[in-house]
Amino acid sequence: MSTGFFGDIGKVKFEGPDSTNPLAYRFYDPDRVVMGKRLEDHLRFAVCYWHNFVWPGNDPFGGDTFERPWFPADSMNQARLKADVAFEMFSILGAPYFCFHDHDVRPEGATLGESVARLDEITDYLAGKMDETGVKLLWGTANLFSNRRYMAGAATNPDPDVFAYAAATVKACIDATFKLGGENYVLWGGREGYETLLNTDMRRELDQLGRFLSMVVDYKHRIGFKGAILIEPKPQEPTKHQYDYDVATVYGFLKRYGLENEVKVNIEQGHAILAGHSFEHELALANALGIFGSIDMNRNDYQSGWDTDQFPNNVPEMALAYYQILRGGGFASGGTNFDAKLRRQSLDPADLLHAHIGGMDCCARGLMAAAAMIEDEALAGPLEERYAGWNQAEARAMLAGERTLEAIADRVVKDSIEPAPHSGRQEYLENVVNRYV
């Protein structure tokens, strides 16, 4: 049933590249088959609850600009209205998934018990909306950063009562995710870091975080939750330094606490840029380390040094990102979550639709270009040629541990080996990519 929030806007449909309809897909055809799979099944789009239905349009220098009918979100009636509008939007877009924090879907209670009871109540309501619309839950998570109790972190807090409160909150959120058939559970350590080392025992805080994550993994197995546990790396903001700085840092942390086979990463494009990397770098490294899980698709303004969470609009960037994802076998339980928000001057309900339509079209174009490059072996051929020498028997023996350092040195001297440099052909490969995008 229509809430009236979007007026008479009907379901967004694919109309093809020649369409001038701003409320139609020009490139995202969910039923188009690419590399033997429907585009919808490749991309697994999800719409986030927080930026779309919770953020009021404020920033560090100005107050709220959005006036939504469910604001202030301080009652369960408002929470149900927000859910009605959210699922109406998911259905208009034809998005197969959504994501949420506990704080997004229910008002905070006076006690944790009241907050959990409200989460249980709204979970049942969301389940009904999911049955009605067919929209599924990509992942759930807990907000362990907004409330003042978390000003010094959650799992890494110097106060053990905050650690315990956060643990109880995560348990409730995993329970809700499990009940709703969520395919993953994400931990974003929004304040798991430090502002200054003058008051920080880093080793202690890392051990606390390792213990917290181990408990989450143990609980997942005890209740039979089959989804992946994901960590979302971010280098800084709001803290000066986050303990989950980037993919490499997260992997080192997981190895230290014996969790590298239990936890994967949810990589956000904007966070990759803030860490000084490209999105494709973080994706390639996660695949190389065997911890790739899912992505948050957004971008930053390259003229700003902070996390602006804008919708993607750069097809070449998306092509290179999805190239790495497809090379790794594509998504398993993960997907493409739009962790992106409107600009605070974009006030109209239709702006929410325009933003997602453009982002979904951009991602679809990028994935199709990436798939074409893979099918044509446009980059795989030159890559294989560059490393061809390692297929020789002597090279394989060196990597297999069948040659000592002395033996290798003796052979180089005996055979008068003088390596001949070969071109990396970077400009040629860049031109190859540009032919596809």
UniProtKB/TrEMBL annotation:
<keyword id="KW-0859">Xylose metabolism</keyword>
<keyword id="KW-0413">Isomerase</keyword>
<feature type="binding site">
    <location>
        <position position="309"/>
    </location>
    <ligand>
        <name>Mg(2+) 2</name>
    </ligand>
</feature>
<keyword id="KW-0963">Cytoplasm</keyword>
<dbReference type="GO" id="GO:0009045">
    <property type="term" value="F:xylose isomerase activity"/>
</dbReference>
<feature type="binding site">
    <location>
        <position position="232"/>
    </location>
    <ligand>
        <name>Mg(2+) 1</name>
    </ligand>
</feature>
<feature type="binding site">
    <location>
        <position position="339"/>
    </location>
    <ligand>
        <name>Mg(2+) 1</name>
    </ligand>
</feature>
<feature type="binding site">
    <location>
        <position position="271"/>
    </location>
    <ligand>
        <name>Mg(2+) 2</name>
    </ligand>
</feature>
<keyword id="KW-0460">Magnesium</keyword>
<comment type="similarity">
    <text>Belongs to the xylose isomerase family.</text>
</comment>
<keyword id="KW-0479">Metal-binding</keyword>
<feature type="binding site">
    <location>
        <position position="307"/>
    </location>
    <ligand>
        <name>Mg(2+) 2</name>
    </ligand>
</feature>
<dbReference type="GO" id="GO:0042732">
    <property type="term" value="P:D-xylose metabolic process"/>
</dbReference>
<comment type="subunit">
    <text>Homotetramer.</text>
</comment>
<feature type="binding site">
    <location>
        <position position="296"/>
    </location>
    <ligand>
        <name>Mg(2+) 1</name>
    </ligand>
</feature>
<feature type="active site">
    <location>
        <position position="101"/>
    </location>
</feature>
<dbReference type="InterPro" id="IPR001998">
    <property type="entry name" value="Xylose_isomerase"/>
</dbReference>
<keyword id="KW-0119">Carbohydrate metabolism</keyword>
<dbReference type="InterPro" id="IPR036237">
    <property type="entry name" value="Xyl_isomerase-like_sf"/>
</dbReference>
<protein>
    <recommendedName>
        <fullName>Xylose isomerase</fullName>
        <ecNumber>5.3.1.5</ecNumber>
    </recommendedName>
</protein>
<feature type="active site">
    <location>
        <position position="104"/>
    </location>
</feature>
<feature type="binding site">
    <location>
        <position position="268"/>
    </location>
    <ligand>
        <name>Mg(2+) 1</name>
    </ligand>
</feature>
<dbReference type="GO" id="GO:0005737">
    <property type="term" value="C:cytoplasm"/>
</dbReference>
<feature type="binding site">
    <location>
        <position position="268"/>
    </location>
    <ligand>
        <name>Mg(2+) 2</name>
    </ligand>
</feature>
<dbReference type="GO" id="GO:0000287">
    <property type="term" value="F:magnesium ion binding"/>
</dbReference>
<dbReference type="InterPro" id="IPR013452">
    <property type="entry name" value="Xylose_isom_bac"/>
</dbReference>
